[in-house]
Each structure stands twice: as C-alpha cells, then as structure tokens.
Amino acid sequence: MYRMLSKFALAISLLVAAQQANAQSDYTVVQWGSNNPLLGSYYTLGDSSDTLFNATTNTAFLGLGYFTDPSVGTYASDISSVYSNFVLLASSGVSGPGADGFEGALSNSSNIYTDMEPGSSAVGMPLYVFVLPGVSEYTEAQVLAVAEYAIYTDSSWGIMPLGSGGTGTLDDNWTNTIDTVLWGTLVPDGGVGAGSSKILTGAVVPEPSTYSALFGLATLLVLQLRRRRQA
Fold first, then answer.
1. CA 29 → CA 49, 68, 119, 162, distances in Å?
2. Nearest Cα to 140, choosing from 92, 84, 204?
3. DSSP-derived secondary structure for 47-98
4. Beta partners for 42?
5. Which helix (H) or strand (E) holds 181?
6. Secondary structure letter of residue 207 according to DSSP
7. pLDDT tens-digit map of 166-225
8. CA-CA distance, 230 to 200, in Å (whole number)?
9. Taking the domains of the chain in order of start, what are their residue ranges?
10. Does the CA dihedral 197-109-60-135 come out positive or negative?
11. In a 3-state reduction of DSSP, which class is residue 186?
C-alpha cells in the first residue's frame, strides 16, 4: 500500500512539475508569410528568371531569423557575411503546385521560444526572411554554394516581442505587400491580388578575391596567346 501511494505521489509531482514548466515557457507565435492565400491576395516568391518557387520542381529554403549585425544592408551582397551574421529561428519550404498549394506562396506559423537561445537573443530584433533556391538543409556548404538568394523584411513587422508564459504572444507577419528587399528584386503589384508584391532572388556577387583570381587567370590566358603567336 505504501509503495502504491509513493508511486501515485511521485506521478502527481511529475505532472505538476511538467505543468509548471510548460506554464513558464515563454514563446511568441510568429505568423510569417503571405496573407491567407484563400483570401485571393498574397505576395509570391520566385527566382531570378521569374519562375515561382514550389514544393517539387523549383524548391527553395526559407529561413526566418534575425541578424546579429543590424547594419546588414551594408553587406547584403556578400552571402558569406550574410550567413555568418544570420541567426535562424524557423524554416519552411514554398507551397504548391496543386489544389492544396499555391505556387510561390509562403504561409507558415512558428513558435519562437524567448526563454532560451536563440529566441531569447531575438527579442527586440527585426525579423528577416532568407530565401535560398535549391537548398534542402541550412548548412554552410549548401548556403555558400547557391547562385542566387534574397533577403527581405517589411516595415510593418516591427520587432520580435517577448513571449508570454504558457499561451504565447501573437506576432502577425502575414502580409500581401513587402516594402524592403535587401537583396533580390522587389516587383510591386507583382503578386496575386491587388497590391501584392513579388520578390525575386538576385545573383551572388563574387568576392573581391574571386575577381582578382579571375583577372589573374585572364592575364595568364592573354600571355599564353601572345607566346603562341610569337612562336
């Protein structure tokens, strides 16, 4: 009898502890992406050839996060610097095609826990979306191998709020217009529905060292051609 009561008391204690832990968990529910596509107005995402991303033939990795360096706009053309300063909070693919999906649309909700890293450091920071065509896993090797990418945010998103224990604080980043594209191309009224935006990825810009290497290679080729002609 004593053992049974002890086990019962232990089970109750664990249940209470679990409930207290859940109640103390601070998180923000971030709705990020287009407006509900069923409303008929949402922004779309595509590559540099203006082909919309989808879930099968033209895939893309979309990361929601913040930058440790707030001056991201000054180095947005350098994907290596972008990767080293971007802190990933949540990720998603792109919808479609098909009856249940909308090509080029992103409609997603994520719980960002603000009582632990990296969510705790995200509080008070503006959120951005990092678009990476053809990437399946967010690794340095895959990110730095892309030929094009996009970074965007919107002035209406505000900053990442502190979550409330147990229930969550809603941070609504669904919109059909995007007004800030740090890298890539913004096409106003290019999405689906009145006033909707379209964001297209932009080509990776070679680093200065790459330019130097290419210039050196071109110089060697010219010298080789001159030698052949002289011979």
1. 34, 21, 12, 10
2. 84
3. -TTSPBP-SSSS-EEEEEEEESSTTGGGSTT-HHHHHHHEEEEEEE----SS
4. 192
5. strand 180-183
6. P
7. 667 788 888 889 999 999 999 999 988 888 999 999 999 986 544 444 444 444 554 555
8. 49
9. 24-230
10. positive
11. strand
Q: Identify any residues that bridge with 26 across adjacent strands, giving them in sequence order.
A: 165
Q: What is the pLDDT of residue 194?
A: 83
Question: Is residue 42 a contact partner of residue 103, using CB atoms and an 8 Å limit?
Answer: no
Nearest residue to 133 via CA among 34, 192, 203, 207: 203
Q: CA 142 to CA 135: how far, in whole Å?
A: 6
Tokens of 228: 């052949």
Residue 71 to residue 171: CA distance in whole angstroms = 23
Pair type for strands 164-165 and 107-113: unpaired
Identify the residue whose tokens are 């689906």: 192
Q: Which residue has the higher pLDDT, 224 or 156?
A: 156
**76 with 182: CB under 8 angstroms?**
yes
What's the pLDDT at 119? 94
Per residue in 110-150, pLDDT tens? Answer: 999 999 999 999 999 999 999 999 999 999 999 999 999 99
pLDDT of residue 37: 56
Q: What letter does residue 182 receive in the DSSP assignment?
A: E
| Average pLDDT value for residue range 6-18 | 50
